[in-house]
Each structure stands twice: as C-alpha cells, then as structure tokens.
Amino acid sequence: MRELHDFLITVPESGADDAAQEARDPVLNDGAVTVRTQGTVLHCLTIIGQIEGHYALPAQTKTTKYEHVIPQLVAVEESDRVDGLLLILNTVGGDIEAGLAIAELIAGMETPTVSLVLGGGHSIGVPLAIAADRSFIVPTATMTIHPVRMNGLVLGVPQTMAYFEHTQERIVSFVAANSSMPGDRFRAMMLATGELAADAGTVLRGEAAVREGLIDAVGSLSDALHDLKDLINKRKLEQHGEQPIEQ
C-alpha cells in the first residue's frame, strides 16, 4: 500500500514524462488528494458515481471502489501527518454492504471528518454523508431515501422479504445513531408513496435535509473546510495544547 506522501500534491518537474506523471496522479487513480495548508494537512476523498462492491460494474460506469477507499481511510487514521479528512459526495448509491462498510469506518475514525454533498447523495450515499463528524449539503443537492432493492434473480419466498427488512433496519439504525433524524421518521420516508414515479421513497433537497435532521447544515466548500479546521483545532488543543490554526 502506498504511503500518504504519495497522495501529496506536487508540481511536475520541467520536461517530466507526461505518462509517468499521469501514472502517479492520485486524482486520476484514486479520486483523492492530500494538501498542506496553513500549518495543517488535509486529505480530500471523493465518493462519486456508484459504490462498487463485490461485483465489478461496466467500464463506462463512474464508480467508487471500496477496495480503494478502505485502505485510504485506514492510512488517514493511522497517519501522524494528516490532521483531517474532507469527503466530497456526488453518488447515486450502489452496493449496500460496501457503502455501509465505508460509512462504519468513517464513523469510527478519531481523525476529524467533514462531508459535503454536491449534486446528490442518494440511497446508500445517505449513510456515507452522515458518517462524518460534521455534514454539509449545498442548496441544489438532493438526497433520495428509498427501500432496499436488489437487481437480478430474487426468490419469491418469505425469507427474501425478511432479508430485505433486516438490511433496511441496518441502514435505519445507522442513520438514527449518526444523525439527528429519528429512526421512525427515516423509515417512514423510505416507504412514502407519491413522490417517486416508479418507486417508494422521498427526495430531500438541501434545506429539507437539514430541517429533517439528516444533514447538519447547508453550506459550500469553504464552510466545510472552515468547520474541518475548527475540529482539527479542538483536537490539537485537547491532545497537545497547540495554538489554533489561522482561518
């Protein structure tokens, strides 16, 4: 596994081989970058497209691969150089178990974390957005809450429905534990009818997601970065009594 310094932004040397530079580009390879700014180091991770789990999606589909994300989260948590993690989300959802695995890792990190929903944070993207210590959503972004669905062959037996309900409860309990939205309210939004043309569920726009207690605040990139630096300041003061980072 690469060290975190491999993700640091660097300026290419004059005459450097373009192909070699592209092969080392963390943005192209991992959708992530680590930057130094004002005495602190921030790791930015993007979660976009579909969350890819145990099965590979078609090559033309934009995906976030959980085998790429999980090692980065472990590296950020264990690094003594990275002070905070910024998550940028624009996802349609995807593999439930992979999404929950990533969300649980984020929720269990001691490193300060802040998420920002741009465009959309749909389906399993909801737990990913709220897993951070502090969550933001831009005014034009939306979040879709709907029941668990499965593609492919489904056995028409009572055990299948029991499995669906069990999986939904895993999501509901995570949302209730990591946001201000009660589990009953989230479950009701999952099963609501009349808003989605071919499905049950609810679509929440930026301010509505905050009003319902799902997301902490409406804000932009600068707001997310400001809050992340505040969280980093508090952690440094608690651990070492260091002076706050200048905003």
Principal-axis shape equals: globular
CATH topology category name: 2-enoyl-CoA Hydratase, Chain A, domain 1
**CATH hierarchy class name:** Alpha Beta
Strand content: 15-25%
Q: What is the correct CATH architecture?
A: Alpha-Beta Complex
Name the poorly predicted regions: 5-16, 18-25
C-alpha-based Rg, rounded: 19 Å
| Secondary structure category | alpha/beta
For the secondary structure, the number of strands is 9
Give the arrangement of secondary structure elements.
Layout: H1 18-23, H2 26-30, E1 32-37, E2 40-52, E3 63-65, H3 66-78, E4 84-94, H4 96-107, E5 113-121, H5 125-130, E6 134-137, E7 142-145, H6 158-178, H7 183-190, E8 202-205, H8 206-211, E9 217-218, H9 221-240
Parallel strand pairs: 2-3, 2-4, 4-5, 5-6, 6-9
Antiparallel strand pairs: 1-2, 7-8
Helix pairs in contact: 3-4, 4-6, 6-7
How would you characterize the overall build of this protein?
The structure is a single chain. Residues 5-16 and 18-25 have low confidence and may be disordered. Strand 5, helix 5 and strand 6 (134-137) form a beta-alpha-beta unit. Helix 3 (66-78) runs parallel beside helix 4 (96-107), helix 4 (96-107) packs parallel to helix 6 and helix 6 crosses helix 7 (183-190). The chain has helices spanning 18-23, 26-30, 66-78, 96-107, 125-130, 158-178, 183-190, 206-211, 221-240, and strands at residues 32-37, 40-52, 63-65, 84-94, 113-121, 134-137, 142-145, 202-205, 217-218. Strands 1, 2, 3, 4, 5, 6 and 9 form a seven-stranded mixed beta sheet that branches. The chain is α/β, with parallel strands linked by helices and 247 residues long. It has nine helices and nine strands. The protein has one domain (4-143, 203-240): 2-enoyl-CoA Hydratase, Chain A, domain 1, CATH 3.90.226.10.
